[in-house]
Design a protein that fits this description.
With 413 residues, this protein is of the alpha/beta class. It folds into two domains: 102 residues, Arc Repressor Mutant, subunit A (Orthogonal Bundle), CATH 1.10.10.920; 259 residues, Alpha-Beta Horseshoe (pyruvate-formate lyase- activating enzyme), CATH 3.80.30. 43% of the residues lie in helices and 19% in strands. The strands form four sheets. It has a nine-stranded mixed beta sheet. A three-stranded antiparallel beta sheet has the order 12-13-14, with no helix packed on it. It has a three-stranded antiparallel beta sheet with strand order 15-17-16.
Length: 413
């Protein structure tokens, strides 16, 4: 009941992110670079095969298109450099960022030439994990490698339409990377159609047995506007069993020796996470289909590769949607992201918004504490009871963004 109520409120708030202006005045960037430390997300949208349940902006790999895209990425980054932005923490997502290793290495070299690089997190797939690539990624300075396994169950992997496996081979690929980076993460999906609780328990047990640094568990999220019959399976998601899956995570990991880095991510010790929305109050996304939040402004890049290149050829940022968040929207978004990361520092909230959370979000804080979802004074920490409701809230928010992505992808905006 509490999870459903929290999810409904978040769903309502998330819909506001769909109401965007199609023109942006450069003046919105005035002072944005001075808001504090800003992370940079870099989107590489190319994959060798397209997973039908994936909502992110992605295209089938074509080498000529991909090489052109990496050059355009540098052009977009140059526009932010000219505006005075600087970054030290970088997150590569996709798509498959390792799809062209030489271009990836060249782009990381470009980052190092322009910024003081502190940390780099990068996503990949089991197919891309081999000893040569591991050595090259280490030499490039990757700190966190996230491998999108999704499941070690061969039947589930097949049902997902993924060309990876067999599971024993994926386990060896993950173990090959383990110990080579500061953090190795394995991504899993739960509540997949046809997936049983026992199958998911087996995945969690495999993670424990392999002693990998970290695992991130994503609830399956709806993907509207899909076209193929296989993709349309994910237009709607049955969430009636979702809590049972999540309880497996709590019982097997949260109650064991793993730290909850977020409500979805569980780590052995202190580890780097890829949720830049948790570690940073502001972030910029570059690449086709990236989004940004800076200085209370929400921006969306074009999802079209052609338009992305065309706008950059005119030395214009490829932003096609923009919304200035109201003060309350901004505060609620901040609250959600910090709860997702398990803890909100009340002093930092007051510093960012000019008054304490007890004043600005009195009703929200009262609700969280009344029902035992979070507690504390200087630092408001999510309780075990609150973790699933926060998971539902984040799932609803990301689903709203998925709706935005799918709309833009369908319209090729």
């Amino acid at each position: 009941m509490l999870a459903n109520l929290s999810g409904w409120v978040t769903r309502r708030e998330g819909r506001k992110f769909l109401k965007l202006h199609d023109k942006i005045d450069d003046s919105v960037f005035a002072g944005a670079k001075d808001t504090g430390t800003i992370s940079l997300y870099i989107h590489i949208p190319f994959c060798r095969t397209l997973c039908p349940f994936c909502c992110f902006n992605r295209y089938l790999f074509r080498e000529d298109k991909a090489r052109q895209y990496f050059k355009q990425l540098k052009g977009e980054l140059d526009l932010y450099i000219k505006k005075g932005f600087t970054f030290s923490d970088f997150y590569f997502g996709g798509g498959t960022p390792t799809i062209l290793m030489d271009e990836l290495e060249g782009f990381i070299g470009y980052l190092k030439a322009n910024f003081s690089v502190k940390r780099i997190s990068l996503e990949t797939t089991p197919r891309e994990v081999n000893r040569e690539n591991i050595a090259r990624l280490k030499a490039a300075g990757i700190n966190r490698l996230s491998i999108g396994v999704q499941s070690f169950d061969d039947d589930i992997v097949k049902a997902m339409g993924r060309p990876f496996g067999p599971s024993e081979e994926m386990k060896q690929q993950v173990l090959m990377a383990q110990g080579e980076f500061d953090t190795v993460n394995v991504d899993f999906v739960f509540n997949f159609p046809g997936q049983t609780i026992d199958q998911f328990k087996a995945d969690v047990q495999t993670f424990k047995e392999l002693k990998i640094d970290q695992a991130t568990f994503y609830p399956l999220m709806a993907s509207p506007h899909k076209k193929s019959a296989l993709e349309r399976r994910f237009n709607r998601v049955d969430i009636t069993e979702e809590k049972r899956f999540y309880d497996v995570i709590l019982n097997e990991l949260y109650a064991d020796d793993c730290k909850a880095s977020t409500v979805w991510c569980f780590s052995r010790g202190e580890r780097m996470i890829d949720e830049y929305i948790v570690d940073f109050d502001d972030y910029i996304g570059i690449g086709a289909g990236s989004v940004s939040i800076v200085g209370g402004n929400f921006y969306v890049n074009t999802f079209s590769l052609d338009r992305y290149g065309e706008l950059l050829s005119r030395d214009t940022l490829p932003i096609v949607g923009w919304r200035k968040l109201t003060e309350r929207e901004n505060q609620r978004y901040y609250l959600l992201t910090k709860l997702f990361g398990m803890e909100l520092d009340t002093g930092k909230f007051a510093q960012r918004f000019g008054a304490g959370i007890e004043t600005k979000l009195r009703a929200e804080l009262f609700f969280l504490k009344l029902f035992g979802l979070a507690g504390g004074k200087d630092k408001i920490r999510v309780t075990r009871k609150g973790m699933y409701p926060v998971s539902v809230m984040m799932r609803e928010f990301f689903t709203s963004l998925n709706n935005l992505r799918e709309l833009y992808i369908e319209e090729q905006t």
